[in-house]
TrEMBL record:
<comment type="similarity">
    <text>Belongs to the LDH/MDH superfamily. MDH type 2 family.</text>
</comment>
<dbReference type="InterPro" id="IPR036291">
    <property type="entry name" value="NAD(P)-bd_dom_sf"/>
</dbReference>
<protein>
    <recommendedName>
        <fullName>Malate dehydrogenase</fullName>
        <ecNumber>1.1.1.37</ecNumber>
    </recommendedName>
</protein>
<dbReference type="Pfam" id="PF02866">
    <property type="entry name" value="Ldh_1_C"/>
</dbReference>
<feature type="active site" description="Proton acceptor">
    <location>
        <position position="187"/>
    </location>
</feature>
<feature type="binding site">
    <location>
        <position position="112"/>
    </location>
    <ligand>
        <name>NAD(+)</name>
    </ligand>
</feature>
<dbReference type="GO" id="GO:0006099">
    <property type="term" value="P:tricarboxylic acid cycle"/>
</dbReference>
<comment type="function">
    <text>Catalyzes the reversible oxidation of malate to oxaloacetate.</text>
</comment>
<keyword id="KW-0560">Oxidoreductase</keyword>
<dbReference type="InterPro" id="IPR022383">
    <property type="entry name" value="Lactate/malate_DH_C"/>
</dbReference>
<dbReference type="InterPro" id="IPR015955">
    <property type="entry name" value="Lactate_DH/Glyco_Ohase_4_C"/>
</dbReference>
<dbReference type="GO" id="GO:0030060">
    <property type="term" value="F:L-malate dehydrogenase (NAD+) activity"/>
</dbReference>
<dbReference type="InterPro" id="IPR001236">
    <property type="entry name" value="Lactate/malate_DH_N"/>
</dbReference>
<dbReference type="InterPro" id="IPR001252">
    <property type="entry name" value="Malate_DH_AS"/>
</dbReference>
<feature type="binding site">
    <location>
        <position position="92"/>
    </location>
    <ligand>
        <name>substrate</name>
    </ligand>
</feature>
<feature type="domain" description="Lactate/malate dehydrogenase N-terminal">
    <location>
        <begin position="6"/>
        <end position="147"/>
    </location>
</feature>
<feature type="domain" description="Lactate/malate dehydrogenase C-terminal">
    <location>
        <begin position="156"/>
        <end position="324"/>
    </location>
</feature>
Length: 328
């Protein structure tokens, strides 16, 4: 039996946590022969609810779940963890400006970054889900400089999955036939799902779906506004699909990517594709056979895509300016 992987999940008593924890414990994230220990991190007022989640996890009798550490103490929560999934954050409330939200959540991610650097396992990798996830990731990373920049990620996989399904529905094909869907930039309404480089059965999407007007307009806005549509319909933000995207992201990061394909996750920009160095931006990413990841560097960017990428990157630059004093 392999040694257990320790996985920290913040906001563990929240909506996403309620879908995510059971997927991790059942083996969906790390495979059917990899035991896990879950570190469930919450704020004090949510500890009673977290207690209920712990009871339910126990009641599943998952063979792979070798321990549960529920806590509001960050040192305990991040002690020895190999993965830190930072889901918890404070939602935007009526009347709150973006700057206010960035400031409130920024402070959370300073403390979490520091606690991860101090307590986590030497191989720790961090995936930020709590919004605004790219900039929260930037803040945590800059407050944990002992951890290499290539171990920090922010989630755009839900946008990728949404985009792939919209293309599959339009083309009338199974979603597994859609590949090479890169989401660029920020996980926000400016993100750009790059249909020009996506493929359906290996063919350019624009060959299979010749309606370029639909692709450039309705498709992009449907994906960009999907989160808002779900809130409108459900009265709550997407949670099961977000948890599923967390599972997909981690699986993609630990599994070599199929030859020629790529997936989406936001990483620290080194300036590739003229994306401002230092921000956390989504790119087309590949995982290599040795477990390292790289940006797929051969993806053509035409004028339409360049304009969209510039807009979303500009938003990330603005967000960085708003939290400049939190970057240490
Ligand atoms: P939720 O409000 O149901 O749960 C959030 C949980 O975080 C609560 O239990 C709360 O007590 C906890 N929390 C708040 N501050 C904390 C802190 N300092 N430390 C630990 N826990 C803390 O929210 P939900 O639906 O689970 O969403 C979580 C986050 O994920 C939100 O920011 C949401 O916007 C974001 N999200 C991101 C997506 C993405 O694609 N990147 C997709 C969907 C949601």
């Amino acid at each position: 039996m392999k040694a257990p992987i320790r996985v920290a999940v913040t906001g563990a008593a929240g909506q996403i946590g309620y879908s995510l924890l059971f997927r991790i414990a059942s083996g969906s994230m790390f495979g059917p022969d990899q035991p896990v220990i879950l570190h469930l991190i919450e704020i004090e007022p949510a500890l009673p609810a977290l207690g209920g989640v712990v009871m339910e996890l126990q009641d599943c009798a998952f063979p792979l779940l070798k321990g549960i550490v529920p806590t509001a103490n960050l040192d305990e929560g991040f002690a020895g963890v190999n993965w830190a999934l930072l889901v918890g954050s404070v939602p935007r409330k009526a009347g709150m400006e973006r700057k206010d939200l960035l400031g409130i959540n920024g402070k959370i991610f300073i403390g979490q970054g520091k606690a991860i650097e101090k307590n986590a396992a030497p191989d720790v990798r961090v995936l930020v889900v709590g919004n605004p996830c790219n900039t929260n990731c930037l803040i945590a990373m800059n407050n944990a400089r002992g951890i290499p920049a290539n171990r920090w990620f922010a989630m755009t996989r839900l946008d990728e999955n949404r985009a792939k399904m919209q293309l599959a529905l339009k083309a009338g094909v199974d979603v597994t036939r859609v590949s090479n869907l890169a989401v660029w930039g920020n996980h926000s309404a400016t993100m750009y799902p790059d249909f020009y480089n996506a493929r359906i059965d290996g063919r350019h999407v624009t060959e299979v779906i010749p309606d370029v007007h639909w692709l450039q307009n309705d498709f992009i806005s449907t994906v960009q506004q999907r989160g808002a549509s779900i809130i409108k319909a459900r009265g709550l933000s997407s949670a099961a699909s977000a948890a599923n995207a967390v599972v997909d992201t981690v699986r993609s990061l630990v599994t070599p990517t199929t030859e020629g394909d790529w997936y989406s996750v936001a990483v620290h920009s080194e300036g590739d594709y003229d994306v401002e160095k230092g921000i956390i931006s989504s790119f087309p990413i590949r995982t290599n056979a040795d477990g390292s990841w790289e940006i797929a560097k051969w993806v053509p960017v035409g004028d339409f895509s360049r304009e969209k990428i510039t807009a979303t990157v500009n938003e990330l630059k603005e967000e960085r300016e708003l939290v400049r004093e939190l970057l240490g």
